[in-house]
Amino acid sequence: MHELALAQGMLDIAEEELARHNCTHLKLLRVQVGAMSGVVPDCLDFAFTSLVQGTKHDGARLEIEKIPLSLQCIMCGTKFVAEHGPGELPACPHCGEVFGHKVLAGREMQIVWIEGD
Fold first, then answer.
1. Residue 13: band (very low, low, confident or very high) from pLDDT cuts 50, 70, 90
2. Can you name the residues that pair with 71 across neighbouring β-strands?
3. Strand 70-73 vs strand 79-81: parallel, antiparallel, or unpaired?
4. Are strands 26-34 and 109-116 parallel, antiparallel or unpaired?
5. Do residues 68 and 105 touch, judged by C-beta distance below 8 A?
6. 55: how many CB neighbours lie within 10 A of its CB?
7. Which one has a higher pLDDT value, 98 or 110?
8. Pairing state of beta strands 101-105 and 70-73?
């Protein structure tokens, strides 16, 4: 479960940022997770909750914003959101092309907000 390592890395980053602002307790960590990031949001949430339990950050919340797979067809230029899951090739809703889409969003996994006191 690589989500445990990701959660630990996010917690390390949050602690560094909290220290820069003279804070010691993490209250909220908000992250964006793309549909093609390879991260399972429920597993990430479980890992984060397990890591903060019984520590000075006990009670900290993890908010996960799921970013859908957004594509652009290289044949006709149409931008669209894939309705299929990762591993499936969605067809362009305009021209029907299946191969050669440019990924505009959906691969990210990033921290967007840290709140502490």
1. very high
2. 80, 103
3. antiparallel
4. antiparallel
5. yes
6. 12
7. 110
8. antiparallel
pLDDT, tens digit (0-9, with 9 covering 90-100), for 63-98: 999 999 999 999 999 999 987 655 677 899 999 998
For the chain, give the DSSP string: -HHHHHHHHHHHHHHHHHHHTT---EEEEEEEEETTSS--HHHHHHHHHHHHTTSTTTT-EEEEEEEP-EEEETTT--EEE--SPTTS-PPPTTT---S-EEEEES--EEEEEEEE-
Amino acid symbol at 117: D
For the stretch 26-45, pLDDT in tens is 999 999 999 989 999 999 99
- Token pair, residue 87, equals 């591993």
Q: Evaluate whether 91 touches 73 at the Cβ level (below 8 Å).
A: no
**Is the overall model pTM greater than 0.70, yes or no?**
yes
Q: Is 37 left (phi over 0), alpha (psi -120 to 50) or beta?
A: alpha
